[in-house]
Every structure is written in structure tokens, then in C-alpha cells.
Design brief:
With about 45 residues, this protein is mainly β. It contains no helices and three strands.
């Protein structure tokens, strides 16, 4: 999980919900796919 502040000073949270490993393991350069959700909160002004 990664929490940060956006350039517009809002809160953001990125969460990895799944990691999908390539079906043909052993092939050089194959990276897993990451499934993520992003939640944004608008801060009070």
C-alpha cells in the first residue's frame, strides 16, 4: 500500500490487489502484471 499527497494537495492511496505471474515462466524479461485500486480523497479547503 502506498499513501501520498497529490500535486493538488489531495490524499491518494494505491493498493495492489493481485499479482498475475505470466503463464510462460522462464521467458527472460517477462514481468508480472499488477492489479491495483486507487482511492482519492479531496481535502477540505
Amino acid at each position: 500500500m502506498l499513501c501520498t499527497v497529490t500535486s493538488e494537495q489531495h490524499l491518494a492511496m494505491l493498493r495492489i490487489t493481485d499479482v498475475r505471474v505470466p503463464s510462460k515462466a522462464g521467458i527472460p524479461g517477462r514481468m508480472p502484471d499488477y492489479v491495483m485500486t486507487v482511492t482519492l480523497w479531496k481535502t477540505a479547503e
